[in-house]
Design brief:
The complex is a heterodimer of chains A (about 500) and B (about 100). With about 500 residues, chain A is α+β, with helices and mostly antiparallel strands. Chain A has helices spanning about 10-15, 65-80, 185-205, 245-265, 310-315, 325-335, 340-345, 350-360, 365-380, 390-405, 410-420, 425-435, 440-455, 455-465, 470-480, 485-495, and strands at about 15-25, 65, 80-85, 90-95, 105, 115-120, 125-140, 145, 160-165, 170-175, 215-225, 235-240, 270-275, 280-285, 295-300. Helix content of chain A is about 40%, strand content about 20%. Chain A folds into three domains: about 10-295, no CATH class; about 325-435, no CATH class; about 440-495, Arc Repressor Mutant, subunit A. Chain A is elongated and about 95 Å long. Chain B is mainly alpha-helical. Chain B has a domain at about 1-45: Orthogonal Bundle (Histone, subunit A). Classes of the chains: A alpha+beta (about 500), B mainly alpha (about 100). Chains A and B meet through strand 2, helix 2, strand 8, strand 9 and strand 15 of A and strand 1, helix 3 and strand 3 of B.
Amino acid sequence: MTVTDLVSYEDALASYDPVMGLEVHVELGTRTKMFCGCATAPGAPANSQTCPTCLGLPGSLPVVNATAVESAVRIGLALNCSIAEWCRFARKNYFYPDMPKNFQTSQYDEPIAFDGYLDVQLEDGEVFRVGIERAHMEEDTGKSTHIGGATGRIHGASHSLLDYNRAGIPLIEIVTRPITGAGERAPEVARAYVAELRELIRALGVSEARMEMGQMRCDVNLSLMPKGAQAFGTRSETKNVNSLRSVERAARYEIQRHAAVLDGGGVIVQETRHFHEDDGSTTAGRVKEEAEDYRYFPEPDLVPVAPDRAWVEELRGTLPEPPRVRRNRLREEWGISEHEMQSVLNAGALDPILASIAAGAPADQARKWWMGELARRANEDGVELSALPITPEQVARVCALVAEGSLNDKLARQTIEGVLAGEGDPDRVVEARGLKVVSDEGALGTAVDEAIAGNQAIADKIRGGKVAAAGALVGAVMKATRGQADAARVRELILERLGVQG
Amino acid sequence: MPGITREEVAHLAKLARLELSAEELEHFAGQLDDIIGAVAAVSEVAGEDVPPTSHPLPLTNVMRPDEVRPSLTPEQALSGAPAQEQQRFKVPQILGEE
């Protein structure tokens, strides 16, 4: 393999302006496929979710999934798009065994949604508007397994195996207008756009949009033009970049690679490129010598989709608060900084925190536990916060126990540990582990008396006015009660016993 | 006069992965040209007031509810496949040696 030359990111940006185009495919969370009633549940045995329609057998006829069309319209509206009054599906013909029909049913020049935008917010709060060219409906392809080559690659394979369970699952492809003017922040904008789109798709409830599961995939098109130039350069298309971090890295790498080629007097070849997660590089795939000829033509087996205007307006009424607006509102309500909010988002803590608040926890307490103890645990275990074996309701219950004085912070942490260890609900853990704060004044009084008796020298110092020395006695009481006493109350009792004012 | 050239037929044959001999190309180019001519005659009949159509029936919004219907069993799905392996359709090498 040849080593690819790169110029430094700073040097690249000093000479060129990047232009990006992002194509995102979202797999809808419908129960059935786009054009037939086959189930879409993941994890089914190979080829157990197929029928004559999605296998392209003669005589079968597709019928479009009403929920998928509704989802497409809602996505379009949420992206501030116009919704077509009348549009058709088209056949995209190509030769590759991932579609048994030998064509993919897609939309060509009549997308269901077009001319929109999505405002995305960068980490420092700057808002960047990304133009949306179109969002159209299509279907996913089957899954190929390549046999006989190295590490499952198509190169060198002797043959391939096809599972068509995924063939026909509804996809929405969302295409941006060329993104210009982002300059050095282009990779950041790309990442923020995909992140915002993912939040939006989730808020709409049309897909879980989990990139690691392939439910959302991004192609990054990138070109450079010399500063001040008007015409776009030749672009490369980096395919299937499947995490937010990778989107940013792929854009950054391509900027550096293009700059090296152009600086060296070379020309950029229009080609697809593959992104490599391990080192963040891209390598050449298929060269596009000419615009691909997919011989698109209107799908004769499907009738046009003509979304009724009243229905479209009704769907507009179901749109959620835009994620960016919602985040800023919550940030203000909670009184936290942009940076703190970003940490909450990066930790994937927003939804758990909100769910705990909905279950009665004060916002600051919910944030404290999810961003503290629980985020640390999730990080240690290498899992998402939402995957921890504790529910937002359980966290809210711990907050309530602290608020009523039954638990102090230390005991609350132990309670959470118990819940995470599968010992049951917080109340059960408190009971079983005997974690309740000792609030029985009699028992506490005895412990205080014992501490004073056992530490006469310290007690004398306190009597003599060295109130700060009380800490040592508080420590002794806490030790005796195995941390289950209310430290503030213990201090009060000690000072009371010794006749000193706090 | 709309028509189709020999070069265009050769391009279509390439896209459709059909190997045509020079004779066949000549033969089909002639036939296709006749067919296109016939279709063009229909276009001439259609006036300004007749919109192009991709479907014979004036229908829109034919949809089905998002309800799961029984699929074929994997055995049924694979019954017409020339080759199979691991309950999957087996296809020949996709990329040739380079």
